[in-house]
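tool=predict chain=A
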Amino acid sequence: QGQLVQYGGGLVQAGDSLRLSCAASGGTDTDYAMGWFRQAPGKEREFVGAISRNGGVTYYNDSVKGRFTISRDNAKNTVYLQMNRLKPVDTAVYFCAARRTYMASTYYYRDGEYSYWGQGTRVTVSS
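tool=predict ok
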């Protein structure tokens, strides 16, 4: 089984952009639908966005729609979360997740539907 290794994150100012990466090591993510979640201090983990196995379908939480974009490069076994126009409320630990599926165009938005998780990466947005 592969592992998910996350890269990116850090401290930025409101309005800045940041890109997170999630690489599958020891395996391939071509059979997996992928998702991004985040957990702010003192809050439950929430869904950010998801992408289907074939990359053709994406779905976002309304709070990030139009600002965040998920993409994937299956040749590199990597999924990306591009975050633009960041706000202080986006401050959280971000997690990528993977779910093996035979459905090429299906996405998943419940954390219980994912089997594999990245280690998390902290994003802090200052005002």
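The CA atoms of residues 37 and 47 lie 4 Å apart. The radius of gyration is 13 Å.
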